[in-house]
């Protein structure tokens, strides 16, 4: 069995909209099956819509349930951060992905 | 005896000017967000209030004009007509006209009356663009509801207040159906739109999102609760969700009765009655478990439900605080504040005399009183000064209009971006900053920002950006105006400076110094004089005004990338901390904020006449000036040795702009709180002195103008260097 101590990094790019949700689900499910630690980056994303956001939240719930780790890293593009803040997903006016992660904890 | 109505009229005018200023800001914002309902409503309410109040105070021309503007805005508000750039331009002119009508109370000059008539017609023409049937229906409803001008003054004055304050809080729950994604609905767009309606706290609920394995990516699991305070009304909220009405569950409840009139908690009542102490109540509350925790533990509510309720509580508390703060503030005429500051200044001076007297007569009890008095005066001074502090944003707003109008006039595209609008600065300083900033911004739009085509050719966006930023830096405020235009042309400035004899043709000069030449009177490199700039009048005015504020102006530029003017302005002009020094028996004050340090030096170590006057201070060569000679207090400059000249002198190292300069004095006495007094007309042009102050024993001390002295020193050492090098 391959022991992988360094986290796997997935940089999400392009439009994360409803069309991408199914593919993202598969990608994250495969990543979680193969790695214990996942880092998700959003800096190259152009938009982040609810379907993909739900997939990411679901992946986080799965990771927690199976003792794995899934964290967010890097910055959020300004447009995405603004929309997430307006929709209550970012509690402070942070544009950092870990701000989103801590805001989502507890929902 | 003055007519009591005059007092009300004055208050009305003051409030109306404020409303018109808000209207201007709102219209400028509306120009970039023409679909923002909240902004249209705010503009409508402002004009509606002005109209009603104007009718009440007999400003009929204002009321009639405002009525036409209101009609046009109402057509935009109800969606019959859309907000266009032309309409914003017209509305801005209308706003200016209203201001002028109010300024010329009674007798209105002909040109303003003619302009008014033409604008009125344009508003009517605009309103007539509405479909004939709808237009007449709207016109009837406007007349019936708002009865403008002379026919219905009483109703017209009652209506606006009620409408202007109609801000309500709502609890909204939005549960999209599971299949909402399938018809392409972007749920986040709807929630974002809701949050833009007013002050909103949005609480997303994600507890229904399952783990990844069980998730259907095409299903919506999230739902929202929101607490929203807005004047837009319930229908505006419903409108957002109108297309998903059947695909979601929407609940809107008004929290109308829950604001104000709040009953006191039991603990507060018991404390008021003297039955228990505050500590007892606090202890009892500490031992009590929080209601939310108990309810969650008993599984009566979920944790997210408690958190959502807490957000609602917090939101309403903030709204209540806003309401309360509105009633807790009062409007005071600014000259009363000025008088208060003057009196505090006198007290500070008197306190210094008291302290001096108590030292002179060595009376312990008097010294103790003097110390207490000093503490109180110091608090009084800080409080008074803080009352005069205003956010600089109040002046920022008018520059948005300057940029808009000027860029239109010049066929350019430019946008003003502001930062740090809440930076506070003394009222007097803010008032004096207006003109210099207008000059700098006009200069940026006219000379800095290129035409849209030229910008595109240079690989820049069509619209230029002018950034106006303010921030605190110690006892100063830094105000920066930067643009992303073409920057300064070094060679053109150099050529012009040589032509005007400001520098020698072969003189080497640092870029920074060269750029600062544009602050010289009459200096302009513009090839043609426009109505805006190019006469070289402007940047020297900026420099003069900023100097008079005790501030500095600096300029940096990158060819092709733009220019930045940085103004460093003292926070206040009234009372400052200073370093008291003595030269040949005379007292002088160096503003403490400029002082870097003091060093001692033997008199015979100081350079003799004709030598370079430079000292090594912390590994930096600092030029110095002997103030004894500069102010002709002693006669050492003429070769003889003044008897009063001490063997060991002090050099106060002060910073001015980017330079350090040494000021040679006989003795440094210590820091001193000084009340700045302006110099009389006779002394206004004395170089190196910016004001005066009265010391504790009643003697006068001059306040040194460090910027000016630094310039003299730099020029002297520069000239010597040039002469030495030639």
Strand order of the largest sheet of chain B: 6-8-9-11-10
Structural domain tally of chain B = 5
Count of helical stretches of chain B: 23
Rg of chain B, alpha carbons: 33 Å
CATH C-level class of chain A is Alpha Beta
Q: What is the end-to-end distance of chain B?
A: 75 Å
CATH superfamily of the largest domain in chain B: Histidine kinase-like ATPase, C-terminal domain
Class computed from helices, strands and strand pairing of chain B = alpha+beta
Uncertain segments of chain B are 132-165, 257-261, 722-726
Mean pLDDT of chain B: 78
Rg of chain A: 13 Å
Q: Let me know the number of strands of chain A.
A: 3
Query: How much helix, percentage-wise, in residues of chain B?
Result: 40-55%
Structural class estimated from helices and strands of chain A: alpha/beta
Low-confidence parts of chain A: none
Sum up the overall morphology of chain A in one term.
globular
Q: The CATH topology of chain A is what?
A: Transcription Regulator spoIIAA
Could you describe the 3D structure shown?
The complex is a heterodimer of chains A (107) and B (726). Chain A is an alpha/beta fold and 107 residues long. Chain A has a single domain, classed as Transcription Regulator spoIIAA (2-Layer Sandwich), CATH 3.30.750.24. Helix content of chain A is 47%, strand content 24%. Chain A has helices at 18-34, 50-65, 78-86, 97-104; strands at residues 8-16, 37-48, 69-73. Chain A has a 3-stranded parallel β-sheet. In chain A, α1 (18-34) packs parallel to α2. The model of chain A has no long low-confidence stretch (mean pLDDT 85). By secondary structure, chain B is of the alpha+beta class. Chain B has 5 domains: 4-164, HPT domain (Four Helix Bundle (Hemerythrin (Met), subunit A), Up-down Bundle), CATH 1.20.120.160; 168-258 and 289-325, Alpha-Beta Plaits (2-Layer Sandwich); 334-388; 391-570, 2-Layer Sandwich (Heat Shock Protein 90); 575-725, OB fold (Dihydrolipoamide Acetyltransferase, E2P) (Beta Barrel), CATH 2.40.50. In chain B, the strands form 5 sheets. Chain B has a 5-stranded mixed β-sheet. In chain B, β15 and β16 (620-626) form a beta hairpin. The termini of chain B are far apart. Mean pLDDT of chain B is 78; it is low at 132-165, 257-261 and 722-726. Classes of the chains: A alpha/beta (107), B alpha+beta (726). The interface between A and B is medium-sized, with 28 and 33 residues.
């Amino acid at each position: 069995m391959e022991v992988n101590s360094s986290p796997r990094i997935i940089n999400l790019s392009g439009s994360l909209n409803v069309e991408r949700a199914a593919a993202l689900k598969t990608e994250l499910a495969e990543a979680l099956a193969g790695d214990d630690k996942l880092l998700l980056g959003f800096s190259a994303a152009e938009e982040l819509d609810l379907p993909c956001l739900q997939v990411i939240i679901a992946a986080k719930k799965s990771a927690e349930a199976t003792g794995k780790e899934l964290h967010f890293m890097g910055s959020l593009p300004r447009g995405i951060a603004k929309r997430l803040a307006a929709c209550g997903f970012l509690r402070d006016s942070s544009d950092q992905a870990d701000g989103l992660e801590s805001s989502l904890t507890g929902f | 005896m003055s007519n009591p109505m005059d007092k009300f009229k004055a208050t009305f005018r003051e409030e109306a000017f404020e409303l018109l200023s808000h209207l201007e800001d709102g219209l400028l914002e509306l120009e970039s967000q023409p679909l923002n309902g909240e902004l249209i409503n705010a503009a409508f309410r402002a004009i509606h209030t002005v109209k009603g109040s104007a009718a009440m105070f007999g400003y009929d021309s204002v009321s009639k004009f405002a009525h036409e503007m209101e009609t046009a805005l109402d057509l935009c508000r109800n969606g019959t007509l859309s907000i266009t750039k032309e309409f914003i331009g017209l509305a801005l002119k209308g706003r200016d006209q209203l201001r002028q009508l109010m300024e010329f109370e009674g007798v209105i000059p002909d040109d303003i009356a003619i302009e008014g008539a033409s604008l009125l017609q344009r508003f009517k023409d605009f309103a007539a663009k509405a479909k004939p049937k709808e237009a007449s229906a709207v016109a009837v409803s406007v007349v019936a509801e708002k009865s403008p001008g002379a026919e219905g003054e009483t109703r017209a004055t009652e209506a606006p207040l009620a409408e202007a304050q109609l801000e309500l809080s709502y609890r909204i729950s939005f549960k999209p159906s599971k299949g909402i994604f399938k018809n392409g609905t972007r749920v986040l767009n709807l929630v974002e739109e809701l949050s833009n309606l007013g002050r909103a706290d949005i609480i997303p609920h994600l507890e229904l999102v399952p783990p990844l394995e069980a998730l259907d990516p095409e299903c919506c699991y999230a739902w929202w609760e929101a607490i929203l305070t807005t004047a837009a009304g319930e229908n505006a909220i419903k409108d957002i969700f109108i297309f998903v009405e059947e695909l979601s569950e929407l609940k809107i409840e008004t929290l109308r009765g829950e604001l104000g009139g709040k009953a006191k908690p039991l603990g507060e009542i018991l404390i008021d009655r003297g039955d228990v102490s505050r500590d007892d109540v606090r202890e009892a509350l500490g031992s009590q478990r929080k209601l939310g925790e108990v309810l969650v533990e008993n599984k009566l509510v979920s944790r997210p439900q408690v958190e959502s309720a807490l957000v609602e509580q917090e939101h309403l508390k903030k709204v209540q605080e806003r309401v309360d703060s509105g009633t807790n503030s009062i409007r005071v005429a600014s000259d009363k504040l000025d008088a208060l500051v003057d009196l505090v200044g006198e007290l500070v001076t008197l306190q210094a005399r008291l302290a001096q007297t108590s030292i002179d007569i060595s009376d312990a009890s008097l010294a103790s009183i003097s110390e207490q008095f000093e503490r109180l005066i110091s608090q009084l001074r800080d409080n008074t000064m803080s009352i005069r502090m205003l956010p600089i944003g109040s002046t920022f707003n008018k520059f948005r209009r300057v940029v808009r109008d000027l860029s239109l006039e010049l066929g350019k595209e430019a946008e003003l971006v502001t930062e740090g609008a809440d930076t506070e600065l003394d009222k007097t300083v803010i008032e004096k900053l207006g003109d210099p900033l207008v000059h700098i911004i006009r200069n940026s739009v006219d000379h800095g920002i290129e035409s849209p085509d030229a910008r595109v050719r240079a690989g820049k966006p069509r619209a230029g950006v002018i950034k106006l930023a303010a921030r605190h830096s110690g006892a100063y405020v830094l105000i920066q105006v930067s643009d992303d235009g073409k920057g300064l042309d070094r060679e053109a400035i150099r050529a012009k400076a040589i032509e005007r004899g400001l520098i020698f043709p072969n003189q080497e000069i640092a870029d920074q110094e060269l750029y600062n030449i544009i602050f010289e009177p009459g200096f302009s490199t513009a090839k043609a004089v426009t109505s805006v700039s190019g006469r070289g009048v402007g940047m020297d005015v900026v420099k003069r005004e900023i100097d008079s504020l005790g501030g500095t102006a600096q300029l940096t530029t990158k060819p092709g990338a733009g220019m930045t003017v940085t103004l460093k302005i003292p926070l206040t002009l009234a009372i400052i901390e200073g370093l008291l020094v003595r030269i040949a028996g005379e007292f002088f004050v160096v503003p403490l904020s400029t002082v870097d340090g003091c060093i001692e030096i033997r008199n015979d170590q100081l350079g003799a006449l004709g030598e370079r006057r430079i000292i090594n201070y912390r590994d930096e060569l600092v030029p110095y000036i002997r103030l004894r000679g500069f102010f002709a207090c002693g006669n050492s400059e003429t070769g003889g040795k003044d008897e009063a000249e001490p063997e060991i002198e002090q050099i106060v190292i002060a910073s001015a702009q980017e330079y350090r300069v040494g000021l040679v004095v006989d003795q440094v006495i210590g820091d001193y709180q000084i009340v700045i007094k302006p110099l009389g007309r006779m002394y206004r042009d004395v170089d190196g002195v910016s004001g005066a102050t009265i010391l504790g024993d009643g003697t006068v001390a001059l306040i040194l103008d460090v910027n000016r002295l630094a310039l003299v020193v730099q020029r002297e050492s520069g000239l010597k260097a040039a002469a030495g090098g030639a």
